Amino acid sequence: MRAIVVTDETAGTAGMRLVVRPEPAAAINDVVVQVHASGFVGTELGWPSTWTDRLNRDRTPTIPGHELAGVVTALGYGTTGLSVGQRVFGLTDWYRDGTLAEYVAVEARNLAALPDDVDFTVGASLPISGLTAWQGLFQHGRLRSGQSVIAHGAGGAVGSMVAQLAREAGAHVIGTGRAADRQKALDFGANEFVDLDNEVLEDVGEVDLVFDLIGGDIAKRSARLVRSGGTIVSIVGPVETQPADGVAIDFVVEADRVQLSEILERVRDGRLRTNIGAMAPLDDAVAAFNSTERRTGKTIIDVRASERVPNADASQSALSVVS
To answer: Among 56, 77, 85, 273, which one is most buried in terms of CB atoms within 10 A?
Structure first.
């Protein structure tokens, strides 16, 4: 099979190569999925799990990418809940070869069913962004209707999900980012927006929840805005400055079939929109990840693009779903 691999931690995305690798086999409780679309988070090339296994042994060359949508082609011993030929989407294990490949082996429990009316590219755009937002807001942030939320990076893939889910839950959402992201953040559900380069974050006053995707000085300043009993949640590491009378939580997103299904249902009925910044075939994946163009949405790799005959009507339909 064709796959993107990395071998040099210092090279970043420039060290990605498209190679031929053996197809994976399904272990106990696994399925093998023929990948149709894959998502990739640029920061994963800085994660220890990309380069070593759980015993800290080198595991390169590594196939990166952890989000996928595709079709089950094989079941491992003891696997239940999924069947060969079923359309699925989900999140793979951090310590196993990933989804920037034509096939991937993944634990069945990490996947959810993908209905026929949802494009594979949409399915692949949801797992990390959707689950991160869901878990940060509702599991760790304990968000309730009527509360106020700062959603940092509200124009990006994760931040736009945070804004939409928080708004749907009845919260007042304050999005942040660069000036160029203002309208996009508002379109994705933010009630107001703070340009972090030119406006004063502290002017928003106290809030119940801060969802931090930035870290550093912004995280420190944000922690001071958390009102008594509130929370700051972070996905970029421990919060250095604790809220005066609140809670600071940093977490790593986990696969969850029930939550994936909840997120997908909201996409299907129009309550949520995905935020795809760019799409590319597998042949062009290395170039796509090394683009110098600033993109605020997720880059999705259409793994099986070369197998399909272009169809203008179908393409337009797919774009209307993910825009």
So the answer is: 273
